[in-house]
Specification:
Elements lengths: L16 E8 L3 H12 L4 E5 L12 E3 H9 L3 H7 L1 E3 L1 E6 L2 E7 L11 E3 L2 H14 L4 E5 L2 E8 L2 E8 L2 E12 L6 H5 L6 E15 L2 H4 L6 E5 L8 E7 L3 E7 L6 H4 L2 H12 L5 E15 L4 E2 L2 E3 L5 E2 L7 H20 L9 H25 L4 H13 L4 H6 L38 E3 L5 E3 L9 E7 L13 E6 L9 E4 L4 H5 L7 E4 L5 E5 L4 H11 L7 H4 L1
Parallel strand pairs: 1-2, 1-11, 2-8, 5-13, 11-18, 22-23, 23-24
Antiparallel strand pairs: 3-7, 4-7, 5-6, 9-10, 10-11, 12-15, 12-16, 13-14, 14-15, 16-19, 17-18, 20-21, 22-25, 25-26
Helix pairs in contact: 1-4, 1-9, 2-3, 9-10
C-alpha cells in the first residue's frame, strides 16, 4: 500500500449528547457492528483515536461465513471482486508434498471458501459503506476515549478531540478497540490466557513480473521444515495487487528489531520466491502471540467484541473472522433491546454463544501452535512421526495440524435454540449456520437462498409441490417458501428450488419448516407447520419465553 487515506475529524461540538450505541474502534469488527446496527435503524457513533486505516496487511484471510455476513450488509461483492479467491491448501514437509485439501469441495454456494484481502482495503470498503449510511452512522476520527463511567441507564464517555474535550452518553457501548483494548484496561478486567514465546516474521512482498507470478498458484502453501528455511515452518498466501504474504517461524530467541531489517528479511524472501525474481518489500513485522479471553464479554452496558474480547494465533484465520461473527451475533440482539422488542436479558446470550465460539477458536489455535512448535521431546517425536506418515496414511493427516481453518461455530444446545423436534431428519440442526443454495425468485431471476434469509427472523418452509397453509403462524413473521414449482402463497415469498439442493440441505422429506435467526443460524425446525410450536420457538429465540404470541410477533 503506497499511501493511507486520511479522514477528516469533526469538532467536539458535533459529538456530544446521548446516543443509543457508541462503538469504540474503527477496525473491521467495529465498523461491521456499526453497519449492522444501522441497517436495523439504530443510530451509531464510531470513535477512533486515529484517522486512517491499518498499517500493513495484517488480517488477510476472510472466510465464506464472513463474506456472507458482509453480503447482508451490502459490501460482500466488493470484497470478493478485489480479493484473491482460494479454497485449496497444500502441506509440505521439506520439499515433499504431504497432502492437499479442498475447503469447499461441493458446489451450490455463492461465496468461495476464502478470499485474501488486506485489512487496510477491508477497512476502506467498510468505511465507504458506512458513509452510505451517514444518516445513521457518525464516524468520529481522532476522538480518543479518556474515561468511561457506567451510569444507572448507560455509559458516559469522556473524549479528547483535536479541538478540545467533550462528553458523550450512550445507552450501550461496544468495545472494539483491539488486542490491547484501552477500554478493557480502563475497566480493570483480567485477560487470562497462554502466551507463546515463539516469534514469527510476516513479510508482504510484491512480485511485479506477471510471468513469474504465474508460478505461484492461488493456494495456501504451508511448509514444515522447508528446504529454504531449515528447521522451522513457513506459510505463503497470495494477495491482491501482486503482493504475497510470507510467514516465517523464527524461534523464541529471535531479536525482533534485528529480524525486521530489510537486509535480514530479503534473503529469506528470495529463498522462497526465487533468487532471480524481482521482488520488493512492502511491509514486514515480527510478532509473538497469545491465546486469551475475557471471562465475560458483557459488563453492564459495555460489550466487548473481536480482539478486545479474545485473541488467538493467526494460524487458522480465526481472529478477524471470529470478530465478524461476534458482530453478527450481537447486533440483532442489541437492536431488539434498544427498540424495546426484547428484554435486556437477551444480551446474556451473546456471552453464552460467543464465549463458546472463543473457546472453540482458542482450543484450535492452541493445538495448532503446540503442533507447530513442540516444547517437549515427546511432543516433538509425535509431531515428527505424524509428518513421516502423513503422505501415505490418511489417519496421520487427520492428526497433522497446520492451522484448522475458520468455520462458523455451532450454537447447538444453547439457550435460544429449541431442542430438535425431528432428531432423525437430515439437513441442518438447531444452532448450525445456514447453508446457501441456488434458487429462482418469483420473477424468474436466478438468485441465492442466503439473500432471502438473515436480517430478521424468518420461517423457511419446504413446500415441495403443494402450496402450504400458513394460517395459525405468528402474525408478522416473515415466511420464505422453497417450492419445487412456481406457486402463489399469500403472505410469503416463494423461491423455486429447481435442482432440489436447498431442500436436501434443509432436510426436505422430514422437515417442514425451519426457523431462521437474524444472524442466519437455525433456531428450530419442525416436522409440521404447527403455529403454536413456531410461536414458542420464536419467543425462545427472542429471549421472551413465556410471552404471548401477540407480544412475540
Amino acid at each position: 500500500m503506497t499511501s493511507r487515506p486520511r479522514f477528516a475529524s469533526h469538532s467536539s461540538s458535533e459529538t456530544g449528547g446521548r446516543r443509543p450505541v457508541v462503538v469504540i474502534g474503527a477496525g473491521p469488527v467495529g465498523l461491521t457492528c456499526a453497519i449492522d446496527l444501522a441497517t436495523r435503524g439504530v443510530p451509531v457513533v464510531v470513535l477512533d483515536d486515529d484517522h486512517t486505516v491499518a498499517t500493513g496487511s495484517r488480517a488477510i484471510c476472510w472466510a465464506k461465513r464472513t463474506l456472507e455476513i458482509w453480503d447482508r450488509l451490502g459490501v460482500g461483492q466488493r470484497m470478493v471482486d478485489k480479493g484473491v479467491t482460494w479454497q485449496v491448501g497444500r502441506v509440505f514437509h521439506g520439499a515433499r508434498e504431504l497432502y492437499r485439501f479442498d475447503l469447499l469441495p461441493e458446489g451450490g454456494h455463492r461465496r468461495p471458501a476464502f478470499v485474501n484481502l488486506q485489512q487496510y482495503t477491508v477497512e476502506e470498503y467498510l468505511i465507504a459503506r458506512a458513509a452510505e449510511l451517514s444518516d445513521l452512522i457518525a464516524l468520529r476520527w481522532r476522538h480518543e476515549v479518556t474515561n468511561l463511567t457506567q451510569t444507572a441507564d448507560g455509559v458516559r464517555l469522556d473524549i479528547a478531540t483535536p479541538d478540545g474535550a467533550c462528553t458523550l452518553d450512550a445507552e450501550w457501548v461496544i468495545a472494539a478497540d483491539g488486542a490491547r483494548s484501552p477500554t478493557r484496561t480502563r475497566m480493570g478486567l483480567p485477560f487470562p490466557g497462554q502466551r507463546f514465546e515463539e516469534r514469527f516474521l510476516i513479510a508482504d512482498v510484491k512480485l511485479a513480473d506477471a510471468t513469474r507470478r504465474a508460478d505461484f498458484p492461488t493456494e495456501r502453501l504451508f511448509w514444515f521444515a522447508p528446504t529454504f528455511h531449515a528447521g522451522q515452518s513457513a506459510l505463503l498466501h497470495r494477495q491482491p495487487d501482486d503482493v504475497f504474504r510470507i510467514d516465517f517461524q523464527l524461534g523464541p530467541e529471535a531479536d525482533p528489531e534485528l529480524e525486521r531489517q530489510p537486509e535480514r528479511v530479503m534473503p529469506r524472501v528470495r529463498a522462497v520466491m526465487g533468487e532471480d525474481n524481482p521482488v520488493t518489500l512492502e511491509w514486514c513485522s515480527v510478532y509473538s502471540f497469545r491465546c486469551a479471553r475475557l471471562e465475560r464479554f458483557v459488563h453492564g452496558r459495555v460489550v466487548f467484541v473481536g480482539d478486545s474480547a479474545h485473541v488467538v494465533s493467526p494460524f487458522g484465520a480465526r481472529g478477524g473472522n471470529g470478530g465478524i461473527q461476534d458482530a453478527d451475533n450481537l447486533c440483532w440482539k442489541l437492536a431488539l433491546i434498544v427498540s424495546g422488542e426484547a428484554p435486556e436479558s437477551l444480551i446474556t446470550t451473546y456471552d453464552e454463544e460467543r464465549g463458546a465460539g472463543a473457546d472453540e477458536n482458542i482450543l484450535n489455535s492452541s493445538r495448532t501452535t503446540n503442533f507447530m512448535t513442540p516444547k517437549t521431546r515427546a511432543e516433538r517425536h509425535f509431531r515428527d512421526g505424524v509428518l513421516d506418515l502423513a503422505a501415505e496414511a490418511p489417519f496421520a493427516r487427520s492428526l497433522l495440524n497446520a492451522g484448522r481453518l475458520s468455520r462458523p461455530c455451532s450454537l447447538a444446545g444453547m439457550a435460544l435454540q429449541t431442542p430438535d423436534r425431528v432428531p432423525l431428519a437430515g439437513g441442518l440442526r438447531p444452532g448450525e449456520a445456514c447453508l446457501d443454495a441456488p434458487v429462482v425468485d418469483a420473477t424468474g431471476r436466478s438468485t441465492w437462498l442466503l439473500d432471502h434469509l438473515g436480517g430478521s427472523f424468518a420461517l423457511l418452509i419446504l413446500a415441495g409441490a403443494e402450496a402450504p397453509d400458513l394460517s395459525g403462524l405468528p402474525p408478522g413473521l416473515r415466511c420464505v417458501v422453497v417450492a419445487e414449482r412456481p406457486m402463489t402463497v399469500p403472505g410469503a415469498e416463494v423461491l423455486c428450488d429447481t435442482d432440489g439442493l436447498a431442500g436436501r440441505r434443509y432436510g426436505a422429506g422430514s422437515v417442514a419448516a425451519t426457523l431462521i435467526r437474524p444472524d442466519a443460524h437455525v433456531a428450530a425446525r419442525f416436522a409440521a407447520l404447527d403455529g403454536a410450536q413456531v410461536a414458542d420457538a420464536l419467543d425462545r429465540a427472542r429471549g421472551r419465553s413465556g410471552a404471548s404470541v401477540q407480544e412475540a410477533a
